[in-house]
Amino acid sequence: MPTPAGAPIQEYFAAVTDPRVDRTKLHVLRDILVMAICAVICGADSWVEMEAYGHAKEQWLRRFLPLPNGIPSHDTFARVLARLNPDELQQCFLRWMQAVSEVTQGEVVAIDGKTLRRSFARATSKSAIPMVSAWASVNRLVLGQQKVDAKSNEITALPVLLQLLELKGCIVTIDAMGCQKAIARTILQQEADYVLTLKANHGLLYEEVQRFFAWARQRRFADVAHEKYYTLDGKQGRIEARHYWVVSDLTWLTAKSEWAGLGSVGMVERQRTVAGKTTMEVHYYLTSLAGSGQQFGEAVRTHWRVEKGLHWVLDVAFQEGQSRLRRDPAAENFAVLRHLALSLLRQESTCTNGFKVKRLKAALDEDYLTRVLLA
């Protein structure tokens, strides 16, 4: 039976630099990383739980790890993983993701931010750590992540993340934080298309787009070239109708030339009925797509799914929202481990239960854990 020692994932993380001096190395860095990955897959959400996992599975771990000084203490896990270079760990994760997953032509890659909300430290006035992640819609995998600098915001983190990814032929969707001219140029340079949410903070541009669609709808789009798409979903007493309009003739748009590759503007009207009460939201978008209503609508819908497909899973199945890790880069490195565990569990398809069940099964069934590691 193959063991994790031969798993390709080991090779991609071998390039991580050991931050310790030689005289303090009681445990091999590779052993620490492998145990940490296995522990997170099996339900560990803290350093103490990593150590507990190691002791419980020491006999199994010794099949493929030397463990010359036994199982590291929780303090060792904390010190080592808190000192690893997060950029190196992220690069290893990216190389592995690019090897095991291939984006397809027209695939939506959703870029979205999430704050590790319990990572704040009241005593030192340290704010919670925000992260920006790239999520592939077809395989439903995290392609990469980037920590937002404490003195900056998502806007500066986005170009860094975008330049790390292989995006050729994809459609990149970003909410209002990424609706920037420089972001649009960066996406086009990656040979991808963009769908950017336009919000009121864009002032005159937003008002011009809003007025145009109000005028066009009043005329029922008479003599206005456009594409329309409609979807209707209903589940557990909730009904949601979405209307999508896309207009490619932008001769009326004053700032058209300022946005690289701008091909269309779009509007989405969402009507949601829950328990007999109906609410409505209207959103506007800038996109480099050529004006297909269905393509635009599916890209927007896919971006909305990242909340449940990624953030909800991390909070519910991996308890990310409850993590109290505060030291940089400990919280960032632990987030990489969660994304790695999530990706491995998602690729293993013999168990069709949710992620909490998959993590429990991996903890109890060593053969299943091996399949997960080799996924």
List strands and helices in order, with pairings.
Blueprint: H1 8-12, H2 29-41, H3 47-56, H4 58-61, H5 74-83, H6 86-100, E1 108-116, E2 129-136, E3 141-147, H7 154-164, E4 171-174, H8 181-189, E5 193-198, H9 204-218, E6 227-235, E7 238-247, E8 264-274, E9 277-287, H10 293-316, H11 330-347, H12 355-364, H13 366-373
Parallel strand pairs: 1-4, 4-5
Antiparallel strand pairs: 1-2, 2-3, 5-9, 6-7, 7-8, 8-9
Helix pairs in contact: 2-3, 2-11, 3-5, 5-11, 6-11, 7-8, 12-13
Notes on the structure:
By secondary structure, the protein is α+β, with helices and mostly antiparallel strands. It folds into two domains: 4-95 and 327-373, no CATH class; 101-316, no CATH class. It is 41% helix and 20% strand. The protein contains 13 helices and nine strands. It has helices at 8-12, 29-41, 47-56, 58-61, 74-83, 86-100, 154-164, 181-189, 204-218, 293-316, 330-347, 355-364, 366-373; strands at 108-116, 129-136, 141-147, 171-174, 193-198, 227-235, 238-247, 264-274, 277-287. The chain has a nine-stranded mixed beta sheet with strand order 3-2-1-4-5-9-8-7-6, sandwiched between helices. The protein is elongated and about 75 Å long. Residues 1-7 and 119-126 have low confidence and may be disordered.
Tally the structural domains.
2
Contiguous runs where pLDDT drops below 50 for at least 5 residues: 1-7, 119-126
Order of helices and strands: HHHHHHEEEHEHEHEEEEHHHH
Q: Biggest sheet: strands, sense, closure?
A: 9 strands, mixed
Let me know the number of strands: 9
Strand content: 15-25%
**Structural class assignment:** alpha+beta
